[in-house]
Amino acid sequence: MPGPVEQSRKLQILIVEDDADMAETMRLVLEKYSSCDIAEHGVAALEQIAARWDSDSCYDVILLDLMMPQMDGLETLERLRHAEEERGLGGVLGAKVVILTALEDEETVTRAVDLGCEGYVFKTQGPRAVIAKLKELGLIV
């Protein structure tokens, strides 16, 4: 179950990003700290998360883009948190979600926080900002 990650193992991260170049860049930047899977949109992400749960494994962190085809990031986050609650993985047991987006409006940030994200990184800040956010959240040193 997710929670404080022992320093002896890498974080398990799911990057949910429809831009393949951005997803690969993020994976390369994070590979020192984590094992990363990539999902191209919210539907695929929820399927990968459920598959992990079915194998008694969970992602520690989900990096979630907001603007994606099929299912946007806010809907994905809402469905994720609902599914976690149904499985008894709510609250501190749930995955830490960090929003990655080009949208820099206060309403979107507020909505994401209300739905249960732990962090927000604007894509204009670059991939290293994600590492800084994971350090701020105490997930990596």
Please, could you describe this protein's structure?
This protein has helices at residues 20-30, 42-54, 73-86, 106-115, 128-136; strands at residues 11-16, 34-39, 61-65, 96-101, 119-122. The protein is of the alpha/beta class and 141 residues long. It has one domain: Rossmann fold (3-Layer(aba) Sandwich). The chain has a five-stranded parallel β-sheet, sandwiched between helices. Strand 4 (96-101), helix 4 and strand 5 form a beta-alpha-beta unit. It is globular. The two termini are 20 Å apart.
Topology readout:
Elements: E1 11-16, H1 20-30, E2 34-39, H2 42-54, E3 61-65, H3 73-86, E4 96-101, H4 106-115, E5 119-122, H5 128-136
Parallel strand pairs: 1-2, 1-3, 3-4, 4-5
Helix pairs in contact: 2-3
What is the overall shape?
A: globular
- What is the CATH domain class? Alpha Beta
Strand content: 15-25%
Strand ordering within the main sheet? 2-1-3-4-5
Any guess at the CATH architecture? 3-Layer(aba) Sandwich
Helical amount:
40-55%
CATH topology: Rossmann fold
State the major sheet: 5 strands, parallel
CATH 4th-level superfamily: Response regulator
Find the structural class using helix and strand composition.
Answer: alpha/beta
Overall mean pLDDT: 90
Low-confidence stretches: 1-7
* Total beta-strand segments: 5
- Distance from first to last alpha carbon: 20 Å
